[in-house]
Design brief:
Elements (H helix, E strand, L loop, with lengths): L7 H24 L1 H29 L9 H17 L3 H30 L4 H23 L4 H34 L1
Helix pairs in contact: 1-2, 1-6, 2-3, 4-5, 4-6, 5-6
Amino acid sequence: MKTFKEQKWMIIVYGVILFAVGLVDLILSIVDLGSAIKVVSYCIAGGLFVIGLLHIVANLIKDTKNFFKGALALGSIAIALGVVFIVYPLMLGDFFIIFSAAFVIAISAVFLVKGFIGIKFKYKKSWIFLYFLLAIIGITLSILAFVYEGSSTVTQIVYITMGAIGVAVGVTAMVYGIKLLNKKAE
């Protein structure tokens, strides 16, 4: 059975898509929030199309018993979501804020737990401080996003934050995928 690490090209493609969407989101959120919502919606739709096609093609090429289980269904769902984001681009605005706030709360909860684990297992104080700081910032931003959902300032902050996260995760995924490619070549 193939492992996740052997899907190195898929990791690089995901990284490129996340980086591109994050960068577009970050720039447009700072310049013009109204167009950012539409452009991010179209970028996400394009990314979903690419991901969907990759999964469907991989399902057709590879042995489905051992590789990409459920890829046909995942690819079809990704393409269907892409169509929704193209047909209703402004729907993303409300959805993105709620989704982002829930996502950031989940990540903040992980940082909070890591902070308590760090206290228990005597991590460096700087790491414990960083975990708690990130948890507090994330939870605060998420609560603001939920409470002031219609506020353009909060919307802009959430879009900028998610854009920065997209860029960071995209670069990390690309570097990881390239390292996997180089490791396989050696």
